[in-house]
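Title: [Solved] Endolytic murein transglycosylase 3D structure

Original question kept below for reference.
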Amino acid sequence: MGHKKFPKRLVLFLMFFIFIIFLSFFVTYNSTVNKPIKSKEKEITIKVDKGQGFYDVINILDKENILRNKFMIKVNLSINGRSIQLREGSYKINTDLSLNELIEALEGKSLNENLISLTIPEGYTIEDIGKVIEEKNIASKEEFIKAVENYELPWFIEKNKNKRYDLEGYLYPDTYFIEKDTDLNDIIKMMVERFEEVLTQIQEESEVNFDNSKINDITTIGSMIEKEAQVDKDRPLISSVIYNRLEKDMKLQIDATILYAMNEHVDVVLYKHLETDSPYNTYKYKGLPVGPICNPGKESLKAALMPDKTDYLYYILQKDKSHYFTNEYNDFLNKKKELGY
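Solution (posted by the thread starter after getting help):
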């Protein structure tokens, strides 16, 4: 019995069909590798969190409908088998970058000499950030502060004439990669958006929901924790002291608020400093200060949202940088004497 032959026209059709598939694959692959980001914007901000890999980042971008073709990117990565070590931070990325340039940018490798790495440590105030901006030759400290004061406040921040800066607490401490000529408003916008993103992450991770009107309180408590804690394990404990004192209608008496109220640094807070008349002074006035006293990081914000359950009312810094906690005033005084304060 002879084999049936496929009609010549069917064979040609199949060959043409396969050719079209390969051509379509090749065109899509090339366009994706040459320009993986699809956006009407000239620049977008991409955030890389601690421990995230490149696959994590492209999955997030794909969900946000920013990637041209996630599958083709993964094909390229598989073909090249390159090791990608991302650098944590927020990147202002040009949407015309090739895939290779995008990877290099997120690895923290300068694409050109105009790319600046701007690192803002946790606990920095707006004035501290202004100094960094000036050191990086982006703008003067005064220009930055003026931009902060004139910035249109996001929906979750209420204007308050008693605050030194309405945006204090909301310029998230992180590493930002920006072009030298980036507008100050764009830099502020990156920091505020990063704050919103981190706060959302904390809510999702903790599964603790809070009213938007509480954002100022949480950020204010987080800022005090940031300034007071020297080690991470103390953060939720310091938070518990703050909440316990508020519940008992006690003054918070936090030294860091005095320093912010004075707007100058002193090595030792003296009794005369405690009389500084300021809505930030928690020795003079009960309740929370009028607003945040610095820009807190994620761990301090998390501690502000989720304090440990304790009956502690006092704490004091020990030689190893951790704090001693107690609910007894006499015990606190004895420990203070023992430590030589």
